[in-house]
Amino acid sequence: MALWAAKLIMFLSLFRGTPGSAALDNCVFLGVEEKNSLYEDGDVICVKGTMTFAIKEINQRSDLLPHLKLGYHIRDSCDDIPVALRSCPLFFKNLLLVKQPFQFRSVSYFASCSCLSDQREFPTFMRTMPSDAFQIRALARLVSYFGWTWVGVIGVESDYARFAIQLFLQESVQYGVCAAYTHFYPVTLSQQALDKLLNMASSKVIINFSGESEMQGILKEIGRWNITGLQWIASEAWATATLLWEKFGDLLTGTLGFAIRRADVIPGLEEHLTSLRPSDIHKSGFLAEFWEETFNCRLNGSVNSHSHGVGNYLDRLPCKGTESLDDVYSPYSDVTQLRVSYNVYKAVYLVAHALQDMSDCKGGKGPFSNGTCADPKHFKPWQNSLFSPTSDSLECTRCSEDTWPNRARDLCIPKTIEYLSYHELMGIMLCVVSVLGACISLSILAIFFTYKDTPLVRANNMELSFLLLVFLAVCFLVGLLFIGEPSDWLCRIRYPAFGISFALCISCLLAKTAVVLMAFRSTLPGSNVMKWFGPNQQRASILLGTAVQVIICLIWLLTSPPHANNNTDYHSATIIMECVTGSEVCFWCVLGYIGILACMCFLMAFLARKLPDNFNEAKFITFSMLIFFAVWITFIPVYVSTAGKYTVAVHIFAILASAFGLLFCIFAPKCYIIILKPEKNSKKHIMQR
């Protein structure tokens, strides 16, 4: 598609009066791209019909431009770019814009050249046709998908093809696709140009960026040379050209390409297109020529009657006046492929909504200096709200990482920031439970300290019990480090504190279990095992068990430490502030080491299960370890499958659940006896078995 070439130039104008009024006030230009022969391809007439239908539809609506009426002017470019350009000043003569051609607001429904996306060079240009940049990316991936790494790339000598081929060569490199050759051929294909093109075709896969008429000339010559087996990749300009497939279907077998987006239906359009009668078209050169060619007749008094001359035209019978488009097939009335026509329909509505926005503008809140608004009946060309590069544009500007588009997609607004906060219900509940767990642990510590001289407390290794309660209180408080806005220092404290606190707890339990086993072995005759596992050795075992975890955490912090991160990948409208583990290996090593300690503790408690009950703390440790395993085994899949603040909440829940499991399984039975059954807290009762 050439930059401004047009088979028809459609000129949508705003009138103060009714449609058809001669007084031209303000206008918006819509460029219609070059098409081939008018009566070979009814699409051009369909485009015109779609535009007039859209204008008629808008003028009949009460909710859109109720106080304004739209009209239009159409000029014929005669399938020639210079003629199209010469027609443009006819529209501008009343606007004093001939010396400033790019101040008028233009809307194209067929210009796909990526060059037009440059808002600095074309600040007043808009389109309802996607830029070639999107098509090119898709074509490069398509060629790569089929493993075609050696392709020919050709195109008509135009900005459309030049920019498209340039983009394709840049994009294809990323997919390992090489261009066997690139070639531009003239719009008017001479025999010499065709021979040159076909002689250099060294690849079986050829991508062609051209219009339908150029492709038709190439296929004719290919058929004459009897060349077969070519794999064509079609640009959108000819991918759905019905005429090509009808004439050269055998040469185009297997052709791939991307088409312009199709609308399923435009309500009322088919009825509008087929309602044409001879009486409606006598003064329209396009429609008259189309009518005569479609029904092979001659319209008396039409504008074409003076321009056809002699020959076959004069041999035709006069049109009867009873002809109907309902009785024949024509691309003009075929609404099953609403592609270009749909773009025209959207373009007209784009203009209408822009004018409606002008009408709705409130003084003092307008987009111009001092908040002024434009008068929709007397607006200046530079005031038209079309163009705006952020409103209804197909070349969207990407929002920054911390913003996302609003519902109208014309403004970037801040994303919602998400993290587990102290101010939300879930954060408050977890905080309360964490503090409550720490308070219960310290309360039990106070009870044990108060009754430290009683047989029950002394028999269950008083010092290790005190240490375990302190470590459990720390575990509960570690949960608070997971609540609040993440920062680098908080993330680097959070995970090591979690790993070390639980290593201390499990190491302490491991020591308590070992003491139980040693104590009963020492009662055997001649056994002196307890002297090898006295208080000093118990403290050393706790420190040793924790030291391994400390080393893992130090390696983690020195190599790839946890850090705060703004995650924008999970949800487009939300920034998830999270702590990233840095090294996944170290994170799972911390969890794995806690699991190893827990397994050792469980195994030793299991071995001590048959010892006398009143002395035996092992069965409670066994139950606590079973709860511990259940919590953390459940934690892993849930942790991996959640995101954002819910991942953090799952982690805190696992910490609290496992800590409460240890606390209640080990210390609740003892507290029950100390407080509610003091008669059982005696040496006699303990020594019964």
Walk me through the structure.
Residues 1-23 form the signal peptide. The chain is 47% helix and 11% strand. The chain has three domains: 34-129 and 339-364, Response regulator (Rossmann fold, 3-Layer(aba) Sandwich); 132-257, Response regulator (Rossmann fold, 3-Layer(aba) Sandwich), CATH 3.40.50.2300; 425-688, Rhodopsin 7-helix transmembrane proteins (Rhopdopsin 7-helix transmembrane proteins), CATH 1.20.1070. It is elongated, with a radius of gyration of 41 Å. The chain has helices at residues 43-59, 81-92, 132-145, 159-172, 191-199, 212-225, 242-248, 269-273, 278-281, 285-295, 312-315, 340-360, 425-450, 455-459, 462-478, 488-522, 535-559, 584-607, 618-641, 645-676, 683-686; strands at residues 8-15, 26-31, 69-76, 106-108, 125-127, 150-156, 178-185, 205-209, 231-234, 256-257, 403-405, 412-414, 416-418, 563-567, 574-580. With 689 residues, it is an alpha/beta fold. The longest helix has 35 residues, at 488-522. α16 packs antiparallel against α17 and α17 runs antiparallel to α18.
